[in-house]
Structure prediction request, 86 residues.
Amino acid sequence: MEGILAEARTHDFMKSNVYTEAAQRLIGVYQETGDVLTACSAMEDVVAVRPDKAVFFAWYGYNTARMTVDQVCPLDAPSEGDSPDL
Prediction:
């Protein structure tokens, strides 16, 4: 994971964004805890704080499903209430 993140950061469009920050959080929490679920949830929390910065498609085509913040980590249960679209 560290190698992929480092490679992604070599591209100008990837250097500083919510997803690289979330990936760094995932790696850090996993290294601290060894728990995949905790690390995945921590990654999702980074995205949840700034969902407006996490939009990964500026335009969605016809009949394209949108991803929500709750779907960033597929390992945990969705939170209560509405989850912002990304």
User: Anything to note?
Assistant: Helices lie at 2-8, 18-33, 36-49.
